[in-house]
Write a structure and sequence with these properties.
Number of helices: 6
Number of domains: 1
Order of helices and strands: HHEHEEHHEEEH
CATH topology: Rossmann fold
Largest sheet: 4 strands, mixed
Family: Belongs to the peptidase C56 family. HSP31-like subfamily.
Keywords: Lyase, Stress response
Strand order of the largest sheet: 1-2-6-5
CATH class: Alpha Beta
GO molecular function: glyoxalase III activity
CATH architecture: 3-Layer(aba) Sandwich
Distance between the termini: 14 Å
Structural class: alpha/beta
Pfam family, one: DJ-1_PfpI
GO biological process, one term: methylglyoxal catabolic process to D-lactate via S-lactoyl-glutathione
């Protein structure tokens, strides 16, 4: 919600896509008191109840991609070829921004440039590091890969702080955040990058994310 609010306030439209399309689950225990009223906000809930399937997305319409957090981002997203194609079309052909927050960084570890190089290679990134996970828990043992380890294996630099404070990394048109508290700073950084790009390319329309 913090990212959505930031993009909306900056004048950008926001569309949602998920691997299977349709409604995405919202777990009540994770909805804070200050966010409960947003469950009745049709502007956001209509999008979450009707996410697009990847095949329905025209990547030419977008200027940025934002991968949300939550450990579900490790499943079904990183290896999805159509989601990968959307992201790289936005990044390479549209000159747009790739961004992610928390476990959402898992979604970008397999992205490749048209020359075959990993997107994260040579880039400074962050995300939710495995050392902050409950490594004795069943959920952790089911992870198909680890974010920090995979970023570094792809030639990227992974940075993270100890603690829960917000932390974001901006490396060119790749913007990543460490944890849920970083959602707003990441979105603000994306907006800043988009504005700088627009200044260099007059006449480009408003971005959609």
């Amino acid at each position: 919600m913090h990212a959505w609010d930031t993009f909306q306030a900056a004048g950008y439209s926001v569309d949602f896509v998920s691997p299977d399309g349709g409604a995405v689950p919202i777990l009540d225990p994770y909805v804070s008191k200050d966010m409960e009223p947003r469950l009745k906000d049709g502007r956001i809930m209509d999008g979450l109840r009707n996410t697009a399937k990847p095949a329905q997305v025209d990547p030419a319409r977008y200027r940025a991609v934002y991968y949300v957090g939550g450990s579900n981002a490790i499943y079904g997203v990183p290896e999805h070829p159509v989601l990968q194609n959307i992201a790289m079309h936005v990044y390479e052909r549209n000159g747009g921004v790739i961004s992610a927050v928390c476990h959402g960084t898992a979604g970008i570890v397999n992205l490749k440039l048209s020359n075959g190089q990993a997107l994260v290679a040579g880039k400074r990134t962050t995300g939710f590091p495995e050392e902050h996970e409950d490594q004795g828990a069943a959920y952790f043992r089911e992870f198909p890969f680890l974010i920090r380890k995979t970023v570094e294996a792809r030639g990227g630099t992974f940075r993270a702080l100890d603690g829960d404070q917000p932390y974001a990394e901006v490396d060119g048109r790749v913007v990543t955040g460490q944890n849920y508290a970083s959602a707003k700073p990441v979105a603000e950084a994306v907006v800043e990058v988009l504005r700088k790009l627009a200044d260099r390319q007059p006449g480009r329309g408003a971005a959609k994310n």
